[in-house]
Amino acid sequence: xxxxxxxxxxxxxxxxxxxxxxxxxxxxxxxxxxxxxxxxxxxxxxxxxxxxxxxxxxxxxxxxxxxxxxxxxxxxxxxxxxxxxxxxxxxxxxxxxxxxxxxxxxxxxxxxxxxxxxxxxxxxxxxxxxxxxxxxxxxxxxxxxxxxxxxxxxxxxxxxxxxxxxxxxxxxxxxxxxxxxxxxxxxxxxxxxxxxxxxxxxxxxxxxxxxxxxxxxxxxxxxxxxxxxxxxxxxxxxxxxxxxxxxxxxxxxxxxxxxxxxxxxxxxxxxxxxxxxxxxxxxxxxxxxxxxxxxxxxxxxxxxxxxxxxxxxxxxxxxxxxxxxxxxxxxxxxxxxxxxxxxxxxx
Length: 347
Hints:
Number of domains: 2
CATH superfamily of the largest domain: Vaccinia Virus protein VP39
Number of strands: 18
Shape: elongated
Number of helices: 10
CATH class of the largest domain: Alpha Beta
Order of helices and strands: HEHEHEEHEHEEEEHEHEHEEEEHEHEE
Largest sheet: 7 strands, mixed
Radius of gyration: 21 Å
Low-confidence stretches: 280-284
CATH architecture of the largest domain: 3-Layer(aba) Sandwich
Distance between the termini: 49 Å
């Protein structure tokens, strides 16, 4: 059972009993949902005067819109890569992502200072000590726990910022925490197989992750200008690195944006491709899918194509048919379907 808004509120209000909030330099949030109260909003009246390090553009924008007094940075590093006397961060999903994020945080902490990690039992906070034996649970309320780790001088080696993954001869920069970060996703590979003719002058890889679709298509079709977009800043950083590795700076750019926002809405594309994250846990969220497809239709050039890949049980085709023409499944394999649809030629 996940914490509700009231339980989260009580947890962060009580956290001050063990964590010196006024001494925190950074609070790092990446996946914390907007459906729950933000620890930054709760802890600021209780003494927090540091910097919010937002790992997603949507989190950064939330505070830009409603809390202008809070200092904030868009970065995937828990302290934005600067020295810190105290960091509070949420638990990352997955063991490799957890290890990577915590090691990065500890490497920037002043010796003797604390890293505080919070998360729910369902997300694995109780097993954090298996990864870091010196971790200590210092506080819990309901389903949320707070774990403390102390930085020790010379304890951690310098980490590589990126790892390398080669897919069909294309080198990509990647790192733990991204979707399918250490092996190519079969759904994305299936979508790539279907693109056998030029995608046109301008292409968007929406929800790009480590850039598998966008970088591969940019190398395959040298006449194409490619834009890649993602809400997750770690994905943006990896794509920027992949662009540099493949010397595609003149034809590729990356946009940090939640959905199709101010930047993308000003652009027009001949083709949009996506292996979109339209799930919340095990539940399909058709509202997210419908919102994306509606917005994508608006930035397609007349006659432009939208091509999505997803699980068989997701009715992308039904949603696309309400807005676009020529909707059809063009490739099916295992549990995945590639859908294609076109915008009317009328501007």
